[in-house]
Amino acid sequence: MSAPHPSSGATSTWLQSIRDRTGEIVVGQDIVVERTLIALLTSGHLLLEGMPGLAKTLLVNTVSKALHLDFRRIQFTIDLLPSDIVGTEILDEKTGGFRTHKGPIFTNLLLADEINRAAPKVQGALLEAMQERKVTLGAETYSLPTPFLVIATQNPIEQSGTFELPEAQLDRFMLCHRLSYPTPEEEEEILRRNMRLGVNKKDGGAVAKTEFDLIGGDAVGTTEDLVAATEAVHGIHVSDVFLKHVIDVVERTRQHPDLELGCSPRAGISLLKASRARALIHGRDYVIPEDLFALAEDVCLHRIRLSYEALAEGKTPKGILNEILEASVS
Amino acid sequence: MKNWLLAFLAFLFATTHLLGETPTQRVGLPLLLEDLYLKGPLLEPVPRTTREIPLMLRMVEVKPAQDGFRYTIEVQGLDAGDYNLGEFLREAQSESGHSSHQVPITITTALPPGLPRPAELQPKPLPRVGGYRALLWVLGLVWVSGLVWVLFAGRKNANSTATITPEPTLAERLEPLLKKASQEELNTDERARLERLVLGHWRKKVPEVANLPTSESLAHLRKHPEASPLLLQLERWLHSRDSAVSDEEIQELLTPYRS
């Protein structure tokens, strides 16, 4: 497919084709696809919170294939070392010198599964690389491929044997989306599609096909298309009035009596960037309050912290944020 | 010859026993008398029926012996003095009396003789005024009057302040902004506030949207047949690059909120 036209209309059509391609494989996770594209177009990173079995890996794999991007997955465990992610220098017996072995972080799309299972040292190594987009191995510093997007997942319920990410590190994720279970209609569609998968015969044996076997076909776009779309995001108009709305929401999180920690300036920047990308995806060349309010939960919720008094009263961050958003439009 | 030797040994034991020191212990500390041979039937401690009995006895072990028994007894003295242990023992199964054995023991004390006792309290008549009952009555009256004040006076004050500073309604907050808009004097802050109030107006007006979270309600309003045209025009005016909305259109756009 040819590169999208610089106009936002053509780009949004191209982005819609990626969503459609993903929809052919993954049922009912359109919002997650949208958030993944927003993160990809704004060079942010995405944290997904949800139960196992919600097709997170399948979704990221499908998006990467649709965009012809390199994809790697790391399952975070307690015994993982920083060198398992970023790589290390290995002694080459033939030459007697050190040879650099690049880790799985050298990819375009990295799925860090259950990031809170690894020790803080490992989390720190990944988050540092996410921030700087560079990795130092021995005396050499290597730039990470472009685009580079980390999609991390964590299970919000099972907390035993985990290391919770501190607020400062959570702040590095541009978006944190909470996955929900599919609706009954979507669940039915998942089951029907699964029944049609059939069997894969190979080497004289047979194995039941999975949804991963459906990923394939031509890529919907190339890296050049993605670069053009990223440029198009920067062409989205942001009015002064919209900036005032962003400042109002961020300021309200800092002034709220139930919040010990409000949104950082990085949260405001993320709101602005993500709103521009969402406007492009929805075929507009300017941002509107709907973009801001639709993304506020994913941008702000993981960056705010409740006071002890509010926690004791049984309040939740989501409830407080809804209160703030409602107060800003009343 | 053998009989003479036994008689001599018995005499020697008796004399050493008689001439030996009387077992002595301090008040409250246990005194253990081991293998004390007492002739006659089996003995047991006389039960302590009153607190005045100065010794406490505990039979640790009883072993049968010729014409009697050997006792290991633990004695605890509660008052200093010289006592005969036999007076604190009686024949087993007998209901009264005490044995005729002579087993002297001494309980000593480090305190000077005589027991100091606290002076006995003399009951005094309570004064008629200023007593404990009067104090309770006063405190009770103060508490009740405080409760009455909190229930009635406090509520009255709250009502009066509420009437003094009523919270402005959405329409009241919109009005000055609409006036300024008609004179084209709105700055960026006021435009942003105007837009938020207009969105709030529609959220309250459309019942199916009122209970939705803000993030979802705006998406619904943009599709609502009544709200959608006005909101889309407002968006174009405030957010689009060229803001191609004439003054007449702006006035027309804001007319529904003026009523």
TrEMBL record, chain A:
Q: Name one GO molecular function term.
A: ATP binding
Q: Which CDD domains match?
A: AAA
Q: Which domain of life is it from?
A: Bacteria
Where in the numbering of this chain does the ChlI/MoxR AAA lid domain appear? 252-324
Q: Which UniProt keywords apply?
A: ATP-binding, Nucleotide-binding
Which InterPro entries does the UniProt record give? ATPase_AAA-3, CbbQ/NirQ/NorQ/GpvN, ChlI/MoxR_AAA_lid, P-loop_NTPase
Q: Which residues form the ATPase AAA-3 domain?
A: 45-175
Please give the PANTHER family that the UniProt record associates with this protein: MAGNESIUM-CHELATASE SUBUNIT CHLD (PTHR42759:SF1), MOXR FAMILY PROTEIN (PTHR42759)
Q: Which family does it belong to?
A: Belongs to the MoxR family.
Q: What is this protein called?
A: ATPase
From TrEMBL, chain B:
Which UniProt keywords are given for this protein, alphabetically ordered? Membrane, Signal, Transmembrane, Transmembrane helix
Report TM segments: 134-152
User: Signal sequence: where?
Assistant: 1-20
- Taxonomically, the superkingdom here is Bacteria
| Name recorded for this polypeptide | Oxygen tolerance
Organism expressing this protein natively: Roseibacillus persicicus
